[in-house]
């Protein structure tokens, strides 16, 4: 175990943007909308924790989130910030500012740069401090930043609101505008960065010979959790076997079972260790799909939440255990087959377009978009702290999966909701049409890649 400062993005307290930081014009914000025709409003069939309702508790408005893992640690309500809803509030535009006439403290700036409560900046940037690990390389290497001969005013602006310099698609959040850093704190960081000239100037200071410390030389280690289709190695299969397999044959209040229409589970094979359902062999590769009856795209999980009550009478609310395990059983019937969305359907193409817009929309207090982490313009194939960020072009969805640190099955919607939480964003209901469009866009980037459900990941 390494000593020193451990960098984590997921335990930092997020600060609500003070209205005092906004001009009167900025406080009167417009609404932004996804372009094109959008699906009608949807009544969620998700479990209460997934719906994320905002309620008043002891005089304060809070979002009701899952009460497990990192979700339970986040108690903030961010309803004043943009979300992935088709129609949502806008974020204030880029703001150019003047650097205040304050004296900077480089030592204090160093502490702020690596502070978990203020970013941490080192999750994206490398500094010459061997006590900090793991640092990331999503952003520029800062070890010789002071040698660039940039003015204090330029650096101050970049930290306060980089959008005024690099454009609105910059992956860096406006840390001054949103109140994560005060004017004095930004000046302190500017003073610290200007001292990082290198040794000799222009050459990064040699502070350690550990190549794992440096994200530009660090080995990329892909965890091996064993065979994901072995019930002895993947707990997700055991949970599915205990919950979904008996439910498949169980008749519900309407006197019907899944097996009555779709057939009994046949003998298992190498890719379907819980049994084969011959009538569903390609289903997992063809979702999300457009349903005229519901006027929206639906994932397997979305469809189960409405289809099961209508046919068997079994309630399978989205993101519930019965829903997710049944999705595993259904989706794994397509293991080894290529993803094949019905892209010749204009409704699917429209959903892909809406999903792409949402993928690139900055949301939440920190104003991050999915694209900030998962495209080459942002952090794709780079380290965010110690974590290598996935690239949307390489395939990001084979869900549900067994999430080892939570010891639970998650579908992609829970994963989306979790991504939003540390960014200071109120998540949408897991079965929302917006998340279905976002999933459709991501799946469209992995057409031809093979289905593998359930895999394991940390």
Produce the secondary structure layout.
Blueprint: E1 5-6, H1 24-27, E2 31-33, H2 48-51, E3 54-57, E4 60-63, H3 69-73, E5 87-89, H4 106-113, E6 132-133, H5 152-160, H6 163-166, H7 183-194, H8 235-249, H9 258-262, H10 283-286, E7 289-291, E8 296-298, H11 300-311, H12 321-331, H13 346-359, H14 370-374, E9 383-384, E10 387-388, E11 401-403, E12 408-410, H15 412-420, H16 433-444, E13 456-457
Parallel strand pairs: 1-6, 11-13
Antiparallel strand pairs: 2-5, 3-4, 7-8, 9-10, 11-12
Helix pairs in contact: 4-7, 5-7, 8-12, 11-12, 13-16
Description of the structure:
It is a single chain. This protein is of the alpha+beta class and 458 residues long. It folds into two domains: 279 residues, Cytochrome Bc1 Complex, Chain D, domain 2; 89 residues, Cytochrome c-like domain (Cytochrome Bc1 Complex, Chain D, domain 2, Orthogonal Bundle). It contains 16 helices and 13 strands. The strands form six sheets. The protein has a three-stranded mixed sheet. The chain has a two-stranded parallel sheet with strand order 1-6. Strands 2-5 form a two-stranded antiparallel ribbon. A hairpin with a 4-residue loop joins strand 11 and strand 12. Helix 5 packs across helix 7. It is globular, with a radius of gyration of 24 Å. The two termini are 18 Å apart.
Keywords, please?
globular; 458 residues; three-stranded mixed beta sheet; 2 domains; Cytochrome Bc1 Complex, Chain D, domain 2; 8% strand; 16 helices; alpha+beta; 13 strands
């Amino acid at each position: 175990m390494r000593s020193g400062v451990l960098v984590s993005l997921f335990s930092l307290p997020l600060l609500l943007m003070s209205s005092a930081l906004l001009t009167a014009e900025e406080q009167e914000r417009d609404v932004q909308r996804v372009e094109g025709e959008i699906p009608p409003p949807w009544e969620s069939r998700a479990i209460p924790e997934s719906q994320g309702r905002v309620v008043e508790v002891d005089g304060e408005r809070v979002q009701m989130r899952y009460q497990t893992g990192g979700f339970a640690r986040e108690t903030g309500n961010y309803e004043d910030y943009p979300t992935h809803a088709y129609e949502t509030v806008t974020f204030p535009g880029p703001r150019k500012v003047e650097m205040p006439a304050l004296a900077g403290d480089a030592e204090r700036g160093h502490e702020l740069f690596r502070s978990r409560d203020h970013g941490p900046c080192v999750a994206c940037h490398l500094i010459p401090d061997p006590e900090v690990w793991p640092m990331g390389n999503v952003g520029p290497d800062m070890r010789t930043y002071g040698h660039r001969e940039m003015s204090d005013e330029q650096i101050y602006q970049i930290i306060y609101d980089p959008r005024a310099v690099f454009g609105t698609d910059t992956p860096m959040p406006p840390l001054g505008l949103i109140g994560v850093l005060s004017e004095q704190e930004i000046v302190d960081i500017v003073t610290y960065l200007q001292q990082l000239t290198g040794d000799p100037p222009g050459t990064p200071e040699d502070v350690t010979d550990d190549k794992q410390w440096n994200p530009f030389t660090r080995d990329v280690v892909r965890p091996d959790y064993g065979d994901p289709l072995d019930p002895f190695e993947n707990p997700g299969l055991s949970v599915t076997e205990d919950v979904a397999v008996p439910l498949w044959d169980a008749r519900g209040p309407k006197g019907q079972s899944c097996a009555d229409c779709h057939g009994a589970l046949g003998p298992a094979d190498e890719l379907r260790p819980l049994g084969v359902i011959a009538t569903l062999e390609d289903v997992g590769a063809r979702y999300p799909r457009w349903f005229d009856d519901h006027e929206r795209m639906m994932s397997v999980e979305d469809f189960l939440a409405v289809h099961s009550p209508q046919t068997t009478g079994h309630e399978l609310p989205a993101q519930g255990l019965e829903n997710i395990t049944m999705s595993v059983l259904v989706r794994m019937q397509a293991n080894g087959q290529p993803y094949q969305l019905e892209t010749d359907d204009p409704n699917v193409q429209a959903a892909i377009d809406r999903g792409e817009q949402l993928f690139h929309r900055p949301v939440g207090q920190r104003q991050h978009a999915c694209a900030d982490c998962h495209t080459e313009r942002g952090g794709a194939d780079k380290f965010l702290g110690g974590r290598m960020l996935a690239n949307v072009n390489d395939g990001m969805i084979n869900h549900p999966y067994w999430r080892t640190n939570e010891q639970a099955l998650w579908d992609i919607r829970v994963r989306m909701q979790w991504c939003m939480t540390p960014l200071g964003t109120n998540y949408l209901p897991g079965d929302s049409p917006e998340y279905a469009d976002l999933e459709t866009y991501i799946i469209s980037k992995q057409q031809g890649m093979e289905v593998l459900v359930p895999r394991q990941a940390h």
